[in-house]
Amino acid sequence: PPPLFTPSRCHAYAKALHYKEIVFENALPSSSTIEDLIEINKQLQQFQSARGILEHARDHYPDQFKESWYEKLQDWTQALDAYERLETSRSLYSDENLGVMRCQMALGSWQHLSRRASVMWDDSSLTSDKKVEVAIIGAQAEFNLAVASDEHLAGVHWQAMESYVRAIGKDRVEGCVSRAVLAVHASELTNAQIYINAARRILERELTALVSESYERAYGSMVVLHQLAELEEIVDHKASPEALSREHLVRLFSSRLQQTERSVEVWKQLISVHALAVSPPDHRDTVLKYCHMCA
Questions:
Q1: How many CB atoms lie within 10 A of CB 182?
Q2: Taking the CA of residue 176 as centre, how many other CA atoms within 13 Å lie in the half-sphere pointing to its CB?
Q3: Whole-angstrom distance between the N-terminal and C-terminal Cα of the chain?
Q4: Looking at CB atoms within 10 Å, which of 145, 169, 218, 287 has the fewest?
């Protein structure tokens, strides 16, 4: 288990697991009981047990089954397949559509995600919270499409990203990071630094709570801090290319990536930031390694 997973926390989860297993064995389990069992086993790093529960529930309690359980195991391909099978039989509810979008974001399926986000964005029945989630995920799609497109198409995606970002509060990390990205793209370097600093302040308040709650969520925040540090270096490079050259940036970015968890999801987040200053031919080795990880 990771070092943040203390014996006392393991003991508490083990007790909760024992209780939930008794409930599961002695009555028809509810979807919430099954979901709790999956989550507790996941927190105990018992991923095979969590998957076994999911598959048992899928086969024996189909009325209780939820496609989102695959998301809990970060099995994005299976989750997306399950949502798509469901979509062949009926229209998806907003929660399910958001599940599809989370899967597409994790898998880097930016074109499909962009189209679905655009449709969801025009849905007048969405609650304000769900509208913000669509905006956060949609902004990610447009950012990744913008940095991968030619100049004409990139402009369309940057404009779409701006539309989404306006709906994300400046009191959220995602709102500050997205605004920093837009400011860097527009060479509004003072504004970029303001939003980078704001994102850091929010993360500092959240990180202590996240560490005590979940190693996985805390690690996600550390990746965002990594993004912010590299956004700041891009600001420095744009402000003074002589002091921080593009070649030095490439060396810095490549060196850090080699020390980062070899995860497609993590590398994807970092490489998209790198693309604000470094084109794929300039760091070909990194791009090839990333493509190999995706294969």
A1: 20
A2: 20
A3: 28
A4: 169
